[in-house]
């Protein structure tokens, strides 16, 4: 019989306990791992595989050849980017003044107004789209208003086209842009603004050279959310676009439901995923470039 | 923030612009309320007659009622599945720490950055293979996987703030992990867990894209039916549904805010 040093055996016990504990915690994350794997990762891989299959299930490159040689594809990519860029620009124009006003309001009032901002965020996308449909119709409230104040004689085509889609998209994305921007503005140290004022800078000057650079992080995350989220958006262009706006998401649905072409729809899906990845990489790249330049100045 | 400046004109202009933008944000939600009480088939504004006929047409229709029941059931099941699954994952992330925790967090949140349409057609292909298109469970897995990032974002900070010394104390006194977690962690996080459940419920209730592609017949959800009827014609019944929906959401938001205030 060999004698075991009690200290050695205690360390071994502890090690075993630690390993067991790690295994236990890993097993706690198992349901989430499996669910996300089976219901999000597997479907994406399936789309990738399907994009290389014919209708009969044999491997082919024809889906991709047809896709990349078609004019419709390039028009769909352009339409997707156009809608995302337009939404982002309008979100910046409308969102920055709103975030600035919220950040300079007393905290209590700001909290009340934030509830107003959150309300559309929690209202169904379909309810909001319906509201815009009603407002923007030929005989809708907006056209009535424009005619009664004499801005136009004939009703404007505000819906079932790019304009209507853009209005609906901006309405959906604006709170998502304002929230991170507002949070970044709130975090600014007020002494920097006081310093700017005491050195004689005007309010516009202070906004441009002090406030905006200090809030850049929040503005960037807001922009990233808006741009990337808009790239794959389906409901708003489907209803408010009225067939006139055909980004990739709409083309996917049409290829699937009208033409029953699973392979072509899958290739379009992978194209959309690549576009999203490219946009994310570009936006992150711009951030790195800016922060390096900022580093040189400091 | 701008109190150091005496630029009155600028501040007034800023507030007018902010008020207009807030108006822009809530206008489409508010406009449907008067329309839902209109007696006319036309979407005239302001409505010339008052009636409850659109509410009757909603509550009297078997297909709308079936969709409502499906949506409420799906919402409840989604909350019931997503909350425990992401609570377990959050505990794992918190206790494992380091790189394992960060990888897990990114992975669990990944469904929120995948475009909805991709998830929808991907699930459609997989479920078609399994012959599960149009079943409740098919739509349910889609909703759960979309709700998990939301519940994780709500639960993770609360689990991280939690004083784990209490659980360690219970463990050293001989309680098993399950007992320590359900007996000590869960009761202290009850408000956060309720918030997470409500968010999961609303995520499912509002989800349209996966439902449009994967649901059919009995499993058709309220948003799917609303989408189809909006695409065909503007039925004022939608105004009644929208009003009910908005009232529900306002009630939930006020409830959560009221509980948080004191």
What is this structure, in a nutshell?
Chain A has 298 residues and is mostly helical.
Structure description:
- The complex is a heterodimer of chains A (298) and B (262).
- By secondary structure, chain A is an all-alpha fold.
- Chain A has a domain at 67-105 and 159-293: MetI-like (MetI-like fold).
- Chain A has 14 helices and no strands.
- Chain A has helices at 6-28, 30-50, 62-69, 71-104, 107-122, 125-136, 141-148, 162-186, 190-198, 203-214, 216-231, 235-240, 248-257, 262-297.
- In chain A, helix 3 (62-69) crosses helix 14, helix 5 (107-122) runs antiparallel to helix 8 (162-186) and helix 6 packs across helix 8.
- The longest helix of chain A has 36 residues, at 262-297.
- The model of chain A has no long low-confidence stretch (mean pLDDT 89).
- Chain B has 262 residues and is an all-alpha fold.
- Chain B has a domain at 61-236: MetI-like (MetI-like fold, Orthogonal Bundle), CATH 1.10.3720.10.
- Chain B is 77% helix and 0% strand.
- In chain B, helix 2 crosses helix 12 (237-260) and helix 3 packs antiparallel against helix 4.
- At the A-B interface, helix 1, helix 2, helix 4, helix 5 and helix 6 of A face helix 1, helix 3, helix 4, helix 5 and helix 6 of B.
